[in-house]
Amino acid sequence: MLRRTKTAHLLVLCLMFNVVSFAGTATNTATEPEISFDQVDGMHAASNLNLSGDSTVPLTSVEITVWNISQPDQWDLIASSPYLDRVVPYTDSVTELTRWSWEHAFSLDSIDCTCYIEISLLEQTDLISFGLIAYIGDEHHRPVLKHALDTSSSQMYSTKIFNDNSLDLSFSFLLPPFQIESFDENEQILSNVRICPAPFGICSESYKSLHSTDVTFDKILSIEVDADAQSIQDGYYLLQVQIQDLYLTLSNNITQFVVVDQSKPVVNLSAIDEVIESQPILVDIDVDDGYEGSAYTITWSITEPDGTPRAVLESEILEDNRLHFEPTKAGVYRVNALVRDIGGHLVTVNHNVSVRNVGPMIEIRFDGFLVENDSIVTIPSSGNWTFSANETMDTSNDQDTLEYTWFVDGKTLFSGKSFLASEDLQQTNYREIRVQVTDDDGQSSELFFQVVQQEDLDSESNSGSILASTVSLLFVFSIALLVYIRQRNQSESNTGFAKWTERAKEPKN
Known about the structure:
43% strand, 5-stranded mixed beta sheet
């Protein structure tokens, strides 16, 4: 006979996770396999073990085994078979689904044990097993502890979470046949509840027995542990439960992962208080739940400056506790974070970030030269020319939505274009040009400059030149005349000879 030794934890997994389905309570389902037994859990058999039941799936590839679990810390294989003695298909009159009835018998002469009968479906990707407890013979019988009948398989594997100081656990149990009649005396059942901290799934310290634990027996074993009274702090634990019958025979151990989380987490959210448009906003959140291995979830949301809330994008979440986004509008953004810890405690935090708009920086070019504010620009009287504001700068979110408005001599000419060309002007005389650039937040910037046409400048220059020339000539002529008169006068006054008047020649008398 093949014998195998398994640990107590394997006993827990197989005994507690492969819960038997009782006759008459099987659920008809077309998607999940289920095998039920006609015999009750905890049945008693003298030597011959006759089994029967129903199945929702064909039983073409199965294995049925009998394990001796009389010792809490080991499993011994007593018998096995790669097939069932009899399988008959039939149609369920209620669901009209095909089901299969089955039968099988084991001869267990000279066997006394607390046994576990297991049927495994070998065709499934994941091994699926069903079974029940049987007491064979008259000796080596012990109590069997297992999860409550209403506990689903997923709940058996999951961690139980307690968010207050009361840890309530319920278990089913089986007693050997000869003890069932005297079960009314609760004193015959003793319990042992032990606990150890296990932040990483294994005990970091030795198990400690819990005293003064409230334990009741009423077809099920109910255990209530006062975490405060037992000085159990928030954290991960392994809780181990075992019972003893009247003869101090120990049952198997059930080990249950539990989390005690009575307190709300401490949450701190940090971010910059003010940015300009398009400058990224980085938000960090720090969560402290007070114990090692704690976990939490964060739900982010952003309230826009107009009061509209929105969910964050997946690309905006850098890490579980870090948010990164770029504001597109000026105003106050509110970043909201809802933190939920394992115990279901909710903490809401938020932070306001003021986003400041930056006005456009106007840059106008004429023939490649920069036009400055209040400058004078000479333009040709004929031919084509263009004033371009294409190099006007703003934040990236406003750059593509800038509005341009051109004014000539104080009157609106047109809007929408980023440049002003000569053909856009109908009048011939104009002196002042003004451009106004407005972003999507309504903030605007302006630039003024004056224009002078080339022909006006030439006419004024020629008139000035003629006048200057005339004045110069008159000045030169006057100087020359004065010099001539002065020189003549000096010449006459400086001579040494007397001037004689010539007389006419007349005859002498």
